[in-house]
Every structure is written in C-alpha cells, then in structure tokens.
Amino acid sequence: MSKVAVFLAEGFEEIEALTVSDILRRAKVPVENVSISAATSVTGSHGIKVEADKTFDEVDFDELDMIVLPGGMPGSLNLEAFEPLMKKVDEFYEKGKYVAAICAAPQILGHKGILEGKRACCSAGFEGELKGAEVTYERVEKSGNLITSRGMGTAIDFALCIAEIYVGSEASAALSKKIAYK
After folding, report:
1. How confident is the model at residue 122 (pLDDT cuts 50, 70, 90)?
2. CATH of the domain at 58
3. Crossing angle of the two packed helices 14-26 and 155-178, in degrees rounded to 10
4. 74-89 burial, b for 16+ CB within 10 Å, e for fewer?
5. What pLDDT is stored for residue 66 in this prediction?
C-alpha cells in the first residue's frame, strides 16, 4: 500500500506540514504525521502544538513510499540532525522512492549531495545550500524522485503535486478546484 509520512521536528513550519497532510487526506491518500522525538506532541515554529499520529520508532518504513520534510526553523535543522531519519532519506532516494522537502528543508537534500544535476527550489536565502542543483524560483520542482518547494505560500502547490503522484492529474486538479484554489 502506498503511504506518505510527514516528519515533524520541534520548530517545524505548521502550514507546510499540515497542508500536505490535509490535502492528501482529502485525496484519500494514506498519510501519517510522524514525530521524530519520543513524544507525539510537537510544537511548530509559531508555537502551535500538533499531535502526531505516531513516533519515528513506530513507523513501518516498508509501508512508505514517500518521506516529506517540512521547513521551518529550527525544524529543518532538527530534522537534519536526526540521524535515523537521514539514513531513511538516503535509503528512499537510492531505492527511487520519493523524498519531498519544502522551504528550508531542501537544504537537507543539498547537504546530502542528492540534488546534483536536479532542478530544485527553496525558501529565499537558502539557494546556496542546494549543492549541485539547478536552482529555480518555481513554486514546486519535481525532478526524478525528488520534490522541492519554496515555502509557506507554495504549500498547496507542493501538496497538490504530491497528491497528483497518487491520484493522477485530473483528480488533483479537481481537488484544487474543490478547495477553491485554482
């Protein structure tokens, strides 16, 4: 079964994480919010507490085919500092499974060297961290099994791009219209 996991670290950008979860649930795509700490309660960068569905240790990674890394500060830095997740990012990328990152989180992919020769975008000011990438200023970039996006203002575009992978372009476009987006 296809399943997506959105990983939450203290200081994550609430809109970026929750928009992905919301859009995917509306599209009937299985998605879980996963805390990287031992507790399911995670506080975002703007002080909003979110109750994750499970903790990192409870995830069955064999059920997943996409990892989503929301931005936010210091959330992105906290995700990158969590070595068990970084090992999974490497595994997913190497196996051709999807890795998606938005806002400051694409810098993680740049630091890992997996953006080499790929088109990628990120939040303003982080472009220099996208090592080896062809940096763009598009709202979303899908390059192979990597998806990047610019930030809070592009969260719906990012989520709809992810949804399209699972439900197709027509269903994604219909969902966009249904939520009065485009």
Report:
1. very high
2. 3.40.50.880
3. 30
4. ebbbbbbebeebeebb
5. 98
Q: Is 67 within the bounds of a domain?
A: yes
What range does the domain containing 140 cover?
4-172
Query: Can you tell me which residue has the tokens 């088109």?
Result: 119
Q: Round the average pLDDT of the chain to a whole number and report it.
A: 97
Output the pLDDT for position 182.
Answer: 84
State how many domains the chain has. Answer: 1
Evaluate whether residue 164 is within a structural domain: yes
Is residue 182 a part of any domain in this protein?
Answer: no
Q: Is the pLDDT of residue 80 over 60?
A: yes
pLDDT digits (tens, 9 = 90+) for 37-55: 999 999 999 999 999 999 9
180 belongs to a structural domain: no
**Residue from 71, 66, 83 nearest 165 by CA:** 66
Among 141, 91, 88, 81, which residue's Cα sits nearest to residue 111? 81
Residues labelled as active-site residues: 103
